[in-house]
Every structure is written in structure tokens, then in C-alpha cells.
Amino acid sequence: MKVILNKNTNYDFEKLDSELFLIVGEDKVTAEHIVTKPYSYWKSVFLKVFKNPAFLISLVLIILIIICSMTIALGQYAIPTYPDGPINQAPSSEHWFGIGKMGEDLWNKTWIATRTTLLFTVIIVLIQIVLGIIIGSIWGYNTRFDIAFIEAIRFISIIPQLVLWLFIIFLFSGNRGMWVAVLAVSITNWIGLASLIRFQILLNKSKEFNIASKVLGSKGGKIIRKNILPSILPIIVQSIAFSIPAAIGIDSSLAYLGFGFVSVSDAKSASLGSMLTDLLSGSDWQIAPHLLIVPVVFIGGLSLVFYIVGKIFADSLDPKNHR
């Protein structure tokens, strides 16, 4: 039996045949259950990123660059010791990136330089992440250490960052290498991320669920690890997305100032920064523009694809973007 009801309907419900209905009783479990689609946080994150064409293209490029830098020109010199061929030659089928001003094959030299710069970048960023998260978490959660951390950062920051880097590298001028540059940069590189995490923890630690966890006996480390850090993960990844291009830029800046961890005259190795500095120190690139185009494209391209991957991944970590 079908009954259409509206505001003008006058129907006596007592006349309805009770045999047409089935009384199921009270079901508290069903009443409290919210009927919705199944939700998995990490599944939603990866579905969102892998549906983004820019993320996929950038990720494929990063993988290809890493594979090429790890396999091409292994054990070879960046600059031939006894060049006996042409110089400043444009790209060709035999030399894809052309020949440099020292007679070197720019294809091999570029991948050697990329391998060195990527290694430097990964080390710098990993140290920044570890120090930034540990110091920022302790600083933000334990307010009794606030003054000590503030004074330490003031002491470190009183000297301009670049001047401090150059001073540390100059102290080890007799043994200049990648690890000296890593030490110099790592002294200050963690401050930005630590300050960001400290601020976010101050905002989040007074929320009701964190107070409840503390009342129930949870330790501070567990509250930070289980409650606070997952909620601020998108902000951390966003910061790291900027840190990778910045680390690549540090290599170029130090090399340009003559304090790079790879000497311009080093025949065995090279970095993208040393390649760029070597070219800008002369006028050969004006005659053969490909000499400048190759390192600039690699420095700019690496910075761009790492930033795109980090930015899109950070956005996908925000639960507000999942629905």
C-alpha cells in the first residue's frame, strides 16, 4: 500500500493495518553508527598524490635523475688529464651536452656534478630534519628550556649566516671538503625548522586530547610522537620542500664565493656549483652558450622538481583536502 503524505493530507494513521509493518525494536549500535564511506588516511594521501599529473611527472624525473647520477660516468674524471680533442663544441650525437672549455665531455661531467650535489643536498637536509624535529620538539613542549634555546639561537644568529659558513670553512681551509661544508651549513640550517616546530607544538599541546593524554599518564615524548607531530606533518613537509632547493643553491653560492667543497680546478670531481662558477669566471659561455645552459638547467630543474613533489605531497597530507 502506498500513501502519499503532504501538508494538506488528512489521514488517520490509526486505520493503518499493523500487519503491513515489522517492529524491529531498538538497535543502539546501528543508531550510533555513522553510515559513510570507509576512510583510510594514508590511502587517501597516496590516492591524491598519484592522481596529480605534476607530481607523477616530477617524481619520474627525480627517479631518472637519481638513477643516471648513480650509474653514469662512475670512476671517470670530470676533466680529462690530457685533453687532446676539440673544445667548446656544441652538442652532437656523440657528445649529447657538447664539449667543455677543457676538452671534457659535458655529459659525463654534468652527471658527476649532479651526483656530488645530490649527495651534499641529501646530507644537509637529513641533518636539518633530525636536528630541527628533535630540538624543536624539546623546545616547544618543555617551556623550562625556552630561555636556553632562545639565547643559544641568538648567539648563533648574531653573525650573518653566510659569514659564519665562510668562517667555519676558512678554519678548515687545509682540509676543505664536503664534510667541512656540511658542518658549516648544519650549524645554522636547523634553526628555521626547529622554530617552526616549536611554534606549532605551542599551538597544539594545549588542545583537549593532548591534555587528556597527559592526565592519563602519557609521557611528553609519546604525546609529541603520537599526537602532535602527525597533526603538523604537512607543515614540516612543506618546510622541507623549500629546504631541498635551498641546499642546492648553497652549493652554487659557496662555489661562486670560492669556498665550495669541490675546487674548480679539481679534475677528478665536480659539483653543479663548481661547474657554474668555472663558466662564469670566463667568457667562453658567450661563444658557446651551451656551456652555461647545461648547469643552469640542471640546477633550476632539480630545484623545481623537488619543490613540486614536496609541495604536492605536503598538501595531500592535510586531511581537509581529502574530502
TrEMBL record:
<dbReference type="InterPro" id="IPR054864">
    <property type="entry name" value="OppC_permease"/>
</dbReference>
<feature type="transmembrane region" description="Helical">
    <location>
        <begin position="118"/>
        <end position="141"/>
    </location>
</feature>
<dbReference type="InterPro" id="IPR025966">
    <property type="entry name" value="OppC_N"/>
</dbReference>
<comment type="similarity">
    <text>Belongs to the binding-protein-dependent transport system permease family. OppBC subfamily.</text>
</comment>
<feature type="transmembrane region" description="Helical">
    <location>
        <begin position="54"/>
        <end position="79"/>
    </location>
</feature>
<dbReference type="GO" id="GO:0015833">
    <property type="term" value="P:peptide transport"/>
</dbReference>
<keyword id="KW-0813">Transport</keyword>
<feature type="domain" description="ABC transmembrane type-1">
    <location>
        <begin position="114"/>
        <end position="310"/>
    </location>
</feature>
<feature type="transmembrane region" description="Helical">
    <location>
        <begin position="287"/>
        <end position="310"/>
    </location>
</feature>
<dbReference type="Pfam" id="PF00528">
    <property type="entry name" value="BPD_transp_1"/>
</dbReference>
<feature type="transmembrane region" description="Helical">
    <location>
        <begin position="228"/>
        <end position="250"/>
    </location>
</feature>
<keyword id="KW-1133">Transmembrane helix</keyword>
<dbReference type="Pfam" id="PF12911">
    <property type="entry name" value="OppC_N"/>
</dbReference>
<keyword id="KW-0812">Transmembrane</keyword>
<dbReference type="GO" id="GO:0015031">
    <property type="term" value="P:protein transport"/>
</dbReference>
<keyword id="KW-0653">Protein transport</keyword>
<dbReference type="GO" id="GO:0055085">
    <property type="term" value="P:transmembrane transport"/>
</dbReference>
<keyword id="KW-1003">Cell membrane</keyword>
<dbReference type="InterPro" id="IPR050366">
    <property type="entry name" value="BP-dependent_transpt_permease"/>
</dbReference>
<keyword id="KW-0472">Membrane</keyword>
<dbReference type="InterPro" id="IPR035906">
    <property type="entry name" value="MetI-like_sf"/>
</dbReference>
<feature type="transmembrane region" description="Helical">
    <location>
        <begin position="153"/>
        <end position="172"/>
    </location>
</feature>
<dbReference type="GO" id="GO:0005886">
    <property type="term" value="C:plasma membrane"/>
</dbReference>
<keyword id="KW-0571">Peptide transport</keyword>
<dbReference type="InterPro" id="IPR000515">
    <property type="entry name" value="MetI-like"/>
</dbReference>
<protein>
    <submittedName>
        <fullName>Oligopeptide ABC transporter permease</fullName>
    </submittedName>
</protein>
<feature type="transmembrane region" description="Helical">
    <location>
        <begin position="178"/>
        <end position="197"/>
    </location>
</feature>
